[in-house]
Each structure stands twice: as structure tokens, then as C-alpha cells.
Amino acid sequence: MARRGAELLPDVAAGLRQPAVDYLAHLELERGLSRNTLDAYARDLGRYLTWLTAQGAEDYRGVTPEDLRTFVAALADSGLAVRSRSRITVSVRRLHAFLHAEGRTESDPGVDVRPPADTERLPKALSVGEIEALLGTVVGDSPAELRTRALLELLYATGARISEAVGLDIDDVDLENRIVRLYGKGSKERLVPLGGHAVRALDAWLVRGRPQMSAARAPRGRGSAGAPERRQRAGAVFLNQRGGRLSRQSAWQAIRTAAERAGLAAHASPHTFRHSFATHLLDGGADIRVVQELLGHSSVTTTQIYTRVTSETLREVYATSHPRAR
């Protein structure tokens, strides 16, 4: 049975192709990656297999770190953008890590091979401690506090854009199965899991906070003109003080207020939660292609920037912590 993505691999020596097929099977069966994601991996690996074949290789046992650095340099000579080169490098490194973990190679030549760096500005992400401190400032039981807590927990749990969060309707949230349906750019739909903290915060808001704000909605006169708006407002997850759908501006202000309490006003914005979500997932070992799908990025090259955030963080920690780093 042909594995997904395998048909995109080049016709090269079995010692190169079959391990790559096995790796794609691992990504499909054990990691549960989608068809599009597997195809993207296959295309990246296919370029590498073609290059190895041109170097006379028939398997991976003799591949050295210097070989990988030469391959990365060849990518640069091909004119590929930095993001594309970084993505391909990461794919190749993960393949070698898999082969070594499976005992198929004696060493992992990709351990010390870094993806090419981009001079593009890196997104700002808060540390886990800063996120917890910010969330810890919202502890009240008023409808507004319950709403803010639910909003912040949702943003951090899902990496949602602020427009996606305020656009949520009741039917988009399934607390029992811990999942939320988000509509991204171009109305593209994606399902994202909810963690326990977010589920509890949303439940508290929907049960104890939202009904009070919903009751504050000003009555409207009869007639068909008002009916669609009432239905839309009744379905919104996040409401304002008048019972209407919470605006992006009001959501932004709620975040700023919480950030000021935590002393993080200069560093926190709605998008900071999205950056932190992605960075913390990658720090925890999540596959970049999975993070891509959770964020709703159409291309993994957009998600690739977060691998550089993680690398920058590691370098900063090393520089400040190692006694012989300077």
C-alpha cells in the first residue's frame, strides 16, 4: 500500500527512497499529519534525495554534517528564499533524527546543522511565566472579568487571531469535546483543540457572565430589519456591555488593561498571544507542520519564523547562563 506523499519522492536508490517513505508513514500514522502537510514534507525531502543521488550516495549511512552543510549551501545557490531553505533544512534534519532514533544510522549528522537565518524581524513572544502572570491578573467574578479571562485563555490556548476570537459564535465552541472552530483569512475553517484552563474559563463566562451581558441588550422594535442582527448577537460568544458582539478594539483594550496590571503593557498585544502560542508549542517539541495547521497558515514558510524565535531564545539563554559563553 502506497503511503501518502510517497508518490512525490523521486525514483532514486532504494536505500535512500525507502527510509524516506518509512518516515512519511511515521508522520502519517503516528503524528497524524494531513495530506497537504505530508506532501510538503515529501517535496522537501525529494529535493534532498535528488541531491544525495547526484553526490553518488545510495543510502544515509555515510552522510556527514559537512555533507548537510554543503546541501544547505547548494540551496542558497539555487536562489531559494531564506524561508524556503530553512523549511527544507528542518525537514532534512528531522528525517536524519528519525533514522538515528530508529537505529538505521550510527549517528545523526543534522544535530549541529542550523537552518539559515533570516534578517527579518522576529515576532515578540512572552515567556510562559509572563503569560501566567498576565492571566493571573484577571481573577474577578464580574461578567467583564469572566469575559476577559475567557478571551485571554482562548487566545493563548488556540493561537487565534483577535478577529477570529471576537467572530466566534456559540456553535463554534464545543466544550464537551474541547475543540473550537475558527474562521481565518479567506474564511478558511480550521478546528483547534482547547486546553483545560480555556475550557473552564469559557464555561464560567458562558454560564455566569454572558447571560448578564446578553440581558443588557437594548430592546428593538418589531420588523424584519432588526431580526438578523438579533440572531447574530445572540450567537456571539463574546459580548460587550450592551449585549452586542465584542469589537476588536474593545478586546484589545481588555488585553491592554490586563497587561498593564502585570507590568507587561509594552510587550503584550492580541498578536503576542498568537506568537507565544506558536513559540511555546515548538519549544515543547511540536512539529512545525502541526503548528502551521493550528495557526491556519497557508504555507509552512510563514510558520518557519517561529523556529528562529526558538533559536534566538536558546542563544540568549546560553549567552547569559554559560560561564564561558563570553
Descriptive notes:
- This protein is mostly helical and 326 residues long.
- It has two domains: 6-101, DNA polymerase, domain 1, CATH 1.10.150; 128-318, Intergrase catalytic core (hpI Integrase, Chain A, Orthogonal Bundle).
- It is 56% helix and 4% strand.
- The chain is built from 14 helices and three strands.
- It has helices at 14-29, 35-54, 65-77, 82-101, 128-135, 143-158, 162-166, 196-215, 227-235, 248-261, 270-283, 288-295, 300-303, 305-321; strands spanning 173-174, 179-183, 189-193.
- Strands 1-2-3 form a three-stranded antiparallel β-sheet, with no helix packed on it.
- A hairpin with a 4-residue loop joins β1 and β2.
- α1 (14-29) packs antiparallel against α2, α2 (35-54) packs across α4 (82-101) and α11 packs across α14.
- The longest helix has 20 residues, at 35-54.
